[in-house]
Amino acid sequence: MMTELLVALAFTGTALAAAVSWPAWVAVGFAAHGLWDWAHHQQRVPTRMPRWYVPFCAVYDWVYAAGLLGIWWMKG
Description:
The radius of gyration is 14 Å and the shape is flat. The mean pLDDT is 87. The chain is 78% helix and 0% strand. The longest helix has 23 residues, at 53-75. The chain is mostly helical. The N and C termini lie far apart (41 Å).
């Protein structure tokens, strides 16, 4: 449970950093969340989620992060 709390605080910090400094931190946060989901999938972090949900969420996070970066890159 402490691990979950620390990770949640890290993601909150990433969101705050995106709000006050560099919006691309949102994409970084989504990509990192995908890695966190993948750790759940590999059973490195105990979870009570359905087995199918974890890889689905990881891939969703990575696609979302890539989409955000692509949109921002095309605008730049």
